[in-house]
Amino acid sequence: MRSIESIVAELPPSSSATAVVGEGGGGWLYGWLVECHGLWHNVLMIVPSALFVLYLASQAKRSFSKVFNDRSHVVAALYAILWLVSIFNLAWCSLQMWECAPGKQFVWSVISLFTTSGMLFLEVSLIAFLLQGNHASGREALTQTFLISALVVGLDMFLKGIYLFGFGVQLFDVSTNGSQWALWVVHKLLLTGVYGVIFFMCRSRWRERLPARPAFQNYISIMFCLNAAALLACALAAHGDGFGLWLYDITVICYHAMFLPLLYVTFLADFLQEDDLHLENVYYSEMKDAGFFDVDWE
User: Fold this and answer.
1) Per residue in 180-203, is it b (16+ CB within 10 Å) or e — as a string?
2) Do 235 and 185 contact (CB within 8 A), yes or no?
3) What angle do CA 161, 164, 165 make, to 5 degrees?
4) 238-265 burial, b for 16+ CB within 10 Å, e for fewer?
5) Which of 267, 283, 259 is nearest to 130 (CA)?
6) What's the pLDDT tens digit per position in 123-133?
7) Using one digit for the tens of pLDDT, what is the confidence trace for 112-124?
8) Separation between Cα atoms, residue 221 and residue 210, nearest integer Å
């Protein structure tokens, strides 16, 4: 009768690995949460994304009623796209183990491409819309905004598709220190440049051309710092620096866990608030535009 050791030695590597994982305590749950990037990475990605989707679901009834009863086509479209991208982002964050699974590389690349492109579409749409001014609304503004976003994101997806499916470069597999970093450096450089220009415009004599909203300026500042850190991380990782890989991982976690809630708080929370508070803000804005607060009380 053969010993157990001889039987295990003849098993395929995948079978042995599966047995070890199962004996290690956890099975598929252990592999889902711990393998590839580690427990804390996966938790920090999944939990905020799941909580944000649950929050959107809890506010859905009131938000849908307010969005579709209002005349702002831009806000309605933005809210619908936010829902779609949030679901894609939650799926992407929940399937991190596919990045390290050899048989899932194609599926991982596809879902990563669509998720990052959807989030980039929101970024470009918000910048393009807000740069039109405070009173931009209606179908014309929506058409112009989404046309710009579609062109930018379409070009971005086309270039990434060439890298992924033309040259076989695994853009979304950070474990390989290869030629994907050149594209990411260019990508982050462009985003950092755009946010940097707007960041300095907010603090210069050209700030009157931008919407006078502190929330918008805070959003630009946060995104500028995040993209600048990601640019530094990609540049270091391109030279094989381990700190660059660690910093890039941190920026990815921050982006996928916090960008969508930041977008919601900055641009949609005020619009979707309770009617009484919303009307109070409207009255305040009308009084301010009428010059009521310009009276010298001294």
Assistant:
1) bbebbbebbbebbebbeebbebbe
2) yes
3) 80
4) beeeeebbebbbbbbbbbbbebbbbbbe
5) 267
6) 998 888 777 65
7) 999 999 999 999 9
8) 14
Tokens of 101: 């699974």
76: Cα separation from own chain's centroid: 19
Residues in the chain: 298
pTM of the model: 0.79
Kindly state the tokens that stand for 23.
Answer: 């004996």
User: What residues contact 224, with CB distance under 8 A and at least 6 apart?
Assistant: 192, 195, 196, 198, 199
Question: What letter represents residue 71's amino acid?
Answer: R
Q: Is 125 exposed, middle or buried (0-12, 13-18, 19+ CB in 10 A)?
A: buried
CB 96 within 8 A of CB 41: yes
Structure tokens at 94: 């929940």
Longest dimension (CA), the chain: 102
Nearest residue to 180 (alpha-carbon basis) of 120, 121, 105: 105
CA distance between the termini of the chain = 102
| C-alpha to C-alpha distance for 245 and 204, rounded to whole angstroms | 35
